[in-house]
Amino acid sequence: MDDTSEPATLREKAYASFTRHLLARDLRPGQFVSQRELVAFTGLPLGAIREIVPRLEAEGLLSTIPQRGMQIAHIDISLIREAFQFRLFMEREAVALFAVNASDAEISRLRREHEEMLAQALAQTATPEMEAKAQNIDWAMHDTFISALDNEIIAKAYLVNSVKIRLIHQERFRIDGRVVPVMREHLAVIDALEKRDPQKAVEAISQHIDNARRLALQI
User: Is 48 left (phi over 0), alpha (psi -120 to 50) or beta?
Assistant: First the structure.
């Protein structure tokens, strides 16, 4: 590796480590944190941490408060509304194109995953492991639609927003106790995909995202 690529690599590692700790709840929304504490969390040099702070601020994941230091983003009503609106705009277009362009095999895979998860949820009492698996299936389907666009600009912007969405899930509502309705909402999307009906797919994904938004907005 040449000398010019090393700083960029460290920046990316620092950013990835920060978001990983954020989603693992090692860092909590609203928490104040110092650069030195981020060094301890990430195990990366102070220089790399300093370089990612402007990016984190620009993405709304971190803010610098005069006299107090850096603060992890708050989960408030404004963030919830904006994050879900962004998600809706992106995923409506993505699912419409997926309905037209996705392979039969890819759609069949989605159906198989969701039907197996639904059957498991209906057959047994929920466990943390089962709910974690269901949550991963949930997020993976949405990520699949965006990935299929093969657009790096959209993918990067969606990734930042998905971190916010997952923080909102953690703080406001989780899939716990909701595996069955979530899988059924996803299967409604998959039904439309199988029929190659973009409009129905858009309607189903919109309903699913709106249901999540309303749950997040409940105080």
Answer: alpha
